[in-house]
Design goal:
12% of the residues lie in helices and 36% in strands. Helix 1 crosses helix 2. It is globular. The longest helix is centred in the last third of the chain and has 13 residues. It has 348 residues and is mostly beta strands. It contains 5 helices and 25 strands. A hairpin with a 4-residue loop joins strand 3 and strand 4. The strands form 5 sheets. Strands 2, 12, 13, 15, 16, 17, 19, 22 and 24 form a 9-stranded mixed beta sheet that branches. Strands 1, 3, 4, 5, 6, 9, 11 and 14 form an 8-stranded mixed beta sheet that branches. A 3-stranded antiparallel beta sheet has the order 8-7-10, with no helix packed on it. The protein has 2 domains: 147 residues, Jelly Rolls; 180 residues, Jelly Rolls (Sandwich), CATH 2.60.120.10.
Length: 348
Amino acid sequence: MLIDPYAAWAANEGVPVTEDFGVDLLEVPTAPWPRFGIDGGLVHLKGRGDFVSIFVLDLAPGAKSAPQKHLFEEVVYVLSGHGNTTVEASDGRKHSFEWGPKSLFALPLNARYQHFNSSGRERARLASTNNLALMLNLFHNESFVFENAYGFPERQGAAKYFSGEGEFIPVRPGRNMWETNFIPDLAGFELKAWDERGAGGSNMMFILADGTMHAHTSQMPVGTYKKAHRHGPDFHVFAVTGHGFSLLWYEGAKDFVRIDWKHGWVFAPPDQMFHQHFNTARDPARYLAVAFGSLRYPFTTDKRRVFQGMDVSVKDGGCQIEYEHQDPRIHGIYLEELAKHGCGIRHG
């Protein structure tokens, strides 16, 4: 009874499994992972939900992963190091792209690929946020997921998508999209204003490899913080630039859960837990969020509701707490933290 095929698979892989509210992915333990031919580990955050988990892949200097091909989607964020990935499309075309710290890319569904560490001196560490949990729990057949010959040529993307180019799809603030397979430098990617989510913030939604996996990046100017909001589980939040903290709480709770973050950290707010992000750095702070259910393919009714109401007040049926309605303690907490870092709050 109550069999969890993904949990059984994870236990049988023989690599460390890290479980917590939030973790520093640069520090989580790894061990030899025969499936990948390199070191690796699994990360299961408390708010990961039913569909998503993280693989941490650790490539030694000059190492390469074993070739992979699988029937699940993944979004890969480069934590450290430099290297390249080769992708073989279903029509035989081969693509290769070079990545470095803070690169972001997605592998087309069931395409054969391989990662290479191009440095002879430094290790490289990748974080793959993926929906293997969904696929194994749905089909409970590893061969179907890892040894499936079916091709998805419509999911490969244009050749330019592997070189860092893409297509901008204008919608409206908070829903503008960039379609590609590879973003060389997420820290420097141009964002669009999204005032409804907080003082001077900006954002871009991504469609990666025409996938159902979602990714977006948002930025907070110096001396600002986002408005609180809530949604379902599985949004994995990665700190990209700057440093700061996030407060999390359930409706009606008196105490906050606090996560301090900088590049390398990731956390996932649990189901319907309010959360609010604060920049305490002297530079803009940027983060990446990865989840299952994209702006193009939301997959669930909950994701549709989130994408429609993520910047709408809870008083109007949305997901967001406006500044004037937030807990009065929050602004004071932020001012104290800014003072510790020698920063001032942005006005206007």
